[in-house]
Predict the structure.
Amino acid sequence: MVDMTVQIGSLKLNNPVIAASGTFGFEREIEQYMDLSKLGGISSKGLTIKPRSGNDAPRVAECPQGMLNSVGLQNPGIEYFIENELPHMLTYGCAVIANIAGHEFEEYGEMAKLLEDTAVDAIELNLSCPNVSGGCMAFGSDAYMIRSVVSSVKKVSSKPLWVKLTPNVTSISEMAIAAEEAGADAVSLINTLLGLVIDIDSRRPIMKNNTGGLSGPAVRPVAVRMVNEVYNAVSIPVIGMGGIMTGRDAAEMMIAGASAVQVGTANLVKPTACIDIIRELESWTANTGAAGVSEITGTIVKW
Amino acid sequence: MVHQIDYSCQVIRRQQPNRSYVILTLESPEIAAMAMPGQFVDVSSDQFLRRPFGIMSVDREQGTFAIGIRVMGQGTLYLSRLQPGDKVSILGPLGHGFCLEGYDRIITVGGGTGVFPLFFVQQFCREQNIEGIAVCGYRSAEESILTEEFTQTACAVSFASDAGDMTVAGHAGIALQAVIDDLIETNSDISRTLICACGPKLMMKTAARLAKQAGISCQVSLEERMACGVGICLVCVCKTKKDDGTVEHSRCCVDGPVFDAEVVIW
């Protein structure tokens, strides 16, 4: 038997596979199709201080080996989440991570305060959503802002703090270092890559918001490279994501330096993808002779 | 308890009634047993995302169901070329279908590919001894589809075409108006009549308006670019009215695809 548990700072996960924010709804649907206790964790849909209705449809465009989305953080607001969704999520028996997205700088601290008295296992600061104007990705592409947001949240929160980074920057390591220096307990990456798809007949973008975030296998090599860069730049755990569809893809991300992985777009193609990925990763790890999956992390043998 | 959603379905039959459409009959006793009119399935192709199709009919004894495919792009082209014996991964049955309980007359109004899920409604009406009236709109007689099947299954049919080469010249709304006028002229009791619409947005909007004018209930099956099909990604939203009058984004895949026409903001 392979030990599938992993440690992200003070938080122990059943296994390294976490359902990524925004690709699992609020789990009410997915719980009909799979046993969520088998997951390492679930990162909630991006939460905002006020409810948001999100962007107008169409919100999705397909591309080779991936898709773009422009949901625009549709969510019922953090207070509704804490009251109505979180108690139910906490019954699943896997780690629950609250993903929070601010429009204004202060909102991150306000939301972290609201989460302080809940049993949420960790907070993931969304400093990377490309589909809303202002805040979020604007904060995440400026090292100074990352430091400010992270340290302000650290002041009011005792929860493990993960910072979700955007790949839409020149140096993602610089952003990860800023997060680490300000007190982040882990960094998660990558959020989606900003993209544009045009219908050549109408010359209109497919999505109503014009641009959207690219995800899926198309982005995986970029994600693996960035995870490896960040792994070499910081000493806090790195949570890797970007186009993981199989257990082998998860292993690749961990070899690059991830202590845990998140699975997002795969859920949209196969709702039970996470379960298959965990099983495949476990059997792949067993075949390597490793006693525990955490031994894989950072074992890349570079040329 | 968790239940299965992903089935590997074998193609049992491939029919090409005209050059625009292919009808696939697929084997899945589970989907055939569970499916209700207005629900859909999400089918894998050679493209990244699945493709949603309204369920056209079920044969619960044979354990099969059928979908109608119009080739729109690479994914539908791939699916249209599947042959008997091929297997394909399908999620289903998905979504909230039509609420048909309590009605004694159901008028289906379909346009283009929208006629497929409405055939399932007519099949249901026939099984349940509900009076089914089928109104179908097509571009032309050449592009018409399922006309024989609707004629055999429904109590009455009315076919319209934009090209003017079918019974009614013009769109399905014109044919629907004639059906409603006829019911009113014959003093029919319309208190338990329902209009089910599926097709181009403008056609559904027209059907909803005509239904409202006549005081007839109306349900519409909406479509929006979809990703997951199971309610977890929030991309396939449409605007709907809540009870308090506020507007919200509802998911076509799980909150719909069928909505009461009264709540839809067109």
User: Anything to note?
Assistant: DSSP finds nine helices and 16 strands in chain A. The radius of gyration of chain A is 18 Å.
